[in-house]
Design a protein that fits this description.
The protein is 38% helix and 22% strand. The chain is built from 10 helices and 14 strands.
């Protein structure tokens, strides 16, 4: 049993956050409280039900998701009452967003299915978006007590230390992805893309948390990551992490409308180029006829 409820942030991370950006530092303290709550409930899972509900096909929510979101949303409102909040469960909805106005965007537990099954990989993802782009990003991988964060123009960090994407020959890459879980209309194209990738590199991994996948890409554990059918809260923080770590992030059309389209390709520059070429070829008919969310 994991008994690290007392932790969720090293002293080095605390000190670095305090110096880097006051908004990030304040938000991180709120997320820290939520992370402790999530970890506590994870350790108590055998004696205290998680209150799992089904929102849709393979779309789960637990009482812990809602509790985490309440902790963070209420904390943000107290410190930043002028900034609206977009959460997976509560807050404003994507259609209510004014493109030039700042807003927080939160996934209270990214990897809820993992969490509900006791699979120990899930995170909290929080971003501040301004003019339609993430300017602050924070992903906390709770079990490993790893704090990935970035501020626009200031770099990307893991527990107080700078991180960079790892640009290696494609044959030496490890690529992250996400499987279709509800909409299988593009399953054939996905299988073709994945099949081509794994015949050319060290393999692919599906961790079950897009926010964590993007954090791993930013820190060089993955060399690239791609997925379609994502929600804005799955990827907002991770997009900035990768960009500030020297990586490239685009949608499947090669543009920067990831939050709007729900799909992205990310990675070190040369790796991104290769992934984009493979995906563009196999999704050619779709890309010619569709410019919206998959």
């Amino acid at each position: 049993m994991i008994m690290t409820i007392h932790t969720t942030m090293t002293i080095e991370t605390e000190q670095h956050l305090a110096k880097l950006d006051p908004r990030l530092n304040a938000a991180a303290e709120i997320v820290r409280e939520a992370a402790r709550f999530i970890l506590e409930r994870h350790t108590q899972r055998k004696v205290r039900p998680l209150g799992i509900q089904v929102k849709g096909r393979n779309d789960l929510v637990t009482e812990v998701d809602k509790g985490s979101e309440s902790i963070i949303s209420e904390g943000l409102k107290k410190i930043f009452p002028e900034i609206p909040f977009l959460g997976e469960e509560f807050g404003i909805r994507p259609g209510e967003i004014l493109s030039k106005e700042p807003y927080w965007i939160l996934d209270p537990i990214d990897g809820t299915t993992n969490f509900s099954h006791g699979f120990p990989l899930f995170s909290v993802s929080l971003a501040l978006v301004e003019n339609g782009k993430p300017v602050i990003g924070l992903v906390v991988e709770i079990i490993r007590d790893e704090w990935f964060y970035a501020v626009s123009g200031k770099g990307s960090f893991l527990n107080g230390k700078p991180v960079k994407v790892a640009d290696v020959p494609f044959s030496q890459t490890l690529i992250g992805t996400g499987f279709p879980i509800a909409d299988f209309s593009h399953l054939k194209e996905f299988q073709q893309v994945l099949g081509e990738i794994i015949q050319q590199n060290h393999g692919a991994r599906r961790a079950g948390s897009a926010a964590t996948d993007l954090a791993y890409t930013a820190s060089g554990r993955f060399n690239g990551f791609f997925e379609l059918g994502l929600k804005p809260w799955d990827m907002a923080a991770g997009i900035l992490l990768v960009q500030e770590a020297g990586g490239i992030v685009t949608d499947y059309f090669g543009g920067n409308q990831m939050l709007e389209t729900g799909h992205l390709i990310s990675g070190a520059p040369a790796v991104h180029r290769k992934l984009f070429e493979i995906i563009s070829r196999h999704y050619e008919s779709f890309l010619k006829t569709n410019t919206g969310r998959i």
